[in-house]
């Protein structure tokens, strides 16, 4: 039995609908339904009655639901007590889609360690949906995720946009395309294409850009850092947010470079998220503020834009209340 199973059951019971509960919890309806069924199998009790017009608590479930709510209330009080008891957190977990590691994540952690030398920061690479779920469950303290303009953001997470940029083509510095100031969409078929795997925002973007017509030969990479390494090894091109490439160690050493995409005005956000349901510890608040400060410094420094006409990444670091 897991805490999230009890949370899912309580949300379905409150809303009377699996679809509305799944939307509220930001998970798929099949995943929600299977989780509740797993809880029913474990308890040996039919908790919900499912019908065309929604879901309602069964007769046995009515007797058990108060106990479920009591457990969830106890968990919340335990977390609050632990937060008060452990104001100087010894471990902070940051989930990240591995964008802007060099220009943002690494300097932020280095600066944070000067403030909290005894606090460990565990950086965990994950996809956006996994980061959202871990933040809501409390297993991640902060999350770094990407969005495209117009994407919906979870209402139950506090979101601070750190950087705004544009997708660019990342290539080896000795690529023939590097002799141009910008790249056409059709040029993406000139070399093998390294595509982020399903679940990453840039996977969705590249399929939309190419209208699902990928080049005959392409690779799949698990995150931006792996994509850049594959480019550096001469395996092909990839498409990433400009703030993921500008200032990267491989770019500074002249191994990789980037060019804007002609005619594409898409904007990408790098956002910092945390749950608003629990008060953050002082260490988490300090790391959040450090990310904001480093992002502002990076964007205002005119970080080496390389050859090409794309603008440098822009900052948008209005932090939510309580930062």
Overview of this structure, please?
The protein is of the alpha/beta class. It folds into two domains: 3-85, Orthogonal Bundle (Arc Repressor Mutant, subunit A); 90-323, D-Maltodextrin-Binding Protein, domain 2 (3-Layer(aba) Sandwich), CATH 3.40.190.290. 41% of the residues lie in helices and 22% in strands. The protein is built from eleven helices and 13 strands. It has helices spanning 3-15, 18-25, 29-43, 59-85, 101-115, 128-137, 201-209, 224-232, 242-245, 249-252, 282-300; strands spanning 48-51, 54-57, 91-96, 120-125, 142-148, 157-165, 167-172, 193-196, 218-221, 237-241, 256-260, 268-275, 314-315. Strands 4-3-5-12-6-13 form a six-stranded mixed sheet, with helices on both faces. Strand 1 (48-51) and strand 2 form a beta hairpin. Helix 2 packs across helix 3 (29-43) and helix 5 (101-115) packs across helix 11 (282-300). The longest helix has 27 residues, at 59-85.
Task: Give a quick precis of the structure.
The chain has helices spanning 3-15, 18-25, 29-43, 59-85, 101-115, 128-137, 201-209, 224-232, 242-245, 249-252, 282-300; strands at 48-51, 54-57, 91-96, 120-125, 142-148, 157-165, 167-172, 193-196, 218-221, 237-241, 256-260, 268-275, 314-315. With 323 residues, it is an alpha/beta fold.
